[in-house]
Structures are given as C-alpha cells and as structure tokens.
Amino acid sequence: MLRRLFITAGLALVPTWFAGAATGNNAHDFSFTSIEGERLALSNFSGKVILLVNTASRCGFTPQYEGLQTLWDKYKSQGLVVLGVPSGDFGGQELETSEKIKEFCEVNFSIDFPMTEKTEVTGKQAHPFYAWALKELGAKAKPRWNFHKYLVGKDGQLIDWFSSTTGPSSARIRDAIETALSQ
After folding, report:
1. Hey, how many other C-beta atoms are within 10 angstroms of the C-beta on 64?
2. What is d(CA 21, CA 98) in angstroms, rounded to the nearest whole number?
3. pLDDT tens digits for 1-17?
4. What is the C-alpha to C-alpha distance for residues 85 and 81, in angstroms, rounded to an integer?
C-alpha cells in the first residue's frame, strides 16, 4: 500500500506533456503545456491542420512570427491551427519564462495563436512529439534551429516539414497548407 502511494505521488510530478504520451500513432496522441500553464492536447485540434513551429524570441528568424500570425489570420477560419513551441535549444535564444515569452510575442508581433510553454525539441529530453516526429520522418526532418516547422494533417498524421529558412509566407508552405485544408 505504501509503495503504491509513493508511485502514485511520483506520477504527479511527471510533466503534463509527458504523462501517457511517450509514444503515439499520430500527433493527436500528444499533449503540451500551454503558455498559460494548462494542458494542451493536440487531440483538441482533431479535424484541423496544424502548423507546429519551434520558436525563439532572440533569433535571426524571430521576424517569422509576423508571417505565422498572417497564416493564422488568413486560414484559421478554414481549419488551420498555428502552434508556437518556444524553445531555448538552439543558442539559448528563448526568454526565461512563459510570462516574458508571451509578453514579447504579444507586444512585438500581436501573436494570438496558441503557444506552449518553453519546451525542449532536440536531444534526449526532447518533448515526445518531437521524438515521434523524428521516428516518423527520419533524421533529415529533425529541427536544426529555431522556426523549424511540421505540418500535421486533419487526421493527426505528419504531412511535411520545413526548415527554418523556409519562411511562413513561402509558396511551398502556403501550398501545403491549402492542400491539407482541402482534404
């Protein structure tokens, strides 16, 4: 009985994004913690197309926030969800707290699409979604810097990935989103 109590108490310390989400069949099997500190299940976006982007506030690619917001504004009514995943994995270029990240994004780019708390996206401590995406798409699709993008279909399957240098306003991303939304 005491052993069960300790095990149960220990599970309460597991981050919400990790609990039950170490493996999955599609993106809808994973959860993050929102920038506001709430559980953010990707299954909430079932039937929608997700553009999931690891972001950073102090990066040469940070101006891509403007293009991400433009995509969100243009396509959200058609079923697109842009999801920002702040990460300090590349050059420590993300601010320290969710509050500072959220304020930076709102003040500088008027961001109102959903965002997660600061999250690891590479290495052994990578969020399970990123470990799954690596397994699904291979090492070539692994984030190598901030503003790497994954496109997830309405069914939760990975459709494509885009490197940091492929901006949100590129024809390649717009075409992929429009195709996914039409299916």
Report:
1. 22
2. 22
3. 444 433 334 444 444 33
4. 13
Nearest in space to 143 (alpha carbons), one of 21, 59, 66: 59
- Report the amino acid identity of residue 104: F
Q: Give the domain range for residue 155.
A: 45-182
pTM (predicted TM-score): 0.87
**33 in Cβ contact with 39 (< 8 Å):** yes
- The region that residue 101 occupies, defined by phi over 0 for left and psi between -120 and 50 for alpha, beta otherwise, is alpha
Residue 105 falls in the annotated catalytic set: no
Q: Looking at the domain assignment, is residue 175 inside a domain?
A: yes
Catalytic residue, from 16, 20, 41, 59: name it.
Answer: 59
Residue with tokens 């809808």: 28
Structure-token match 């699904």, residue found: 136
pLDDT in tens, 47-100: 999 999 999 999 999 999 999 999 999 999 999 999 999 999 999 999 999 999
CATH of the domain at 99: 3.40.30.10
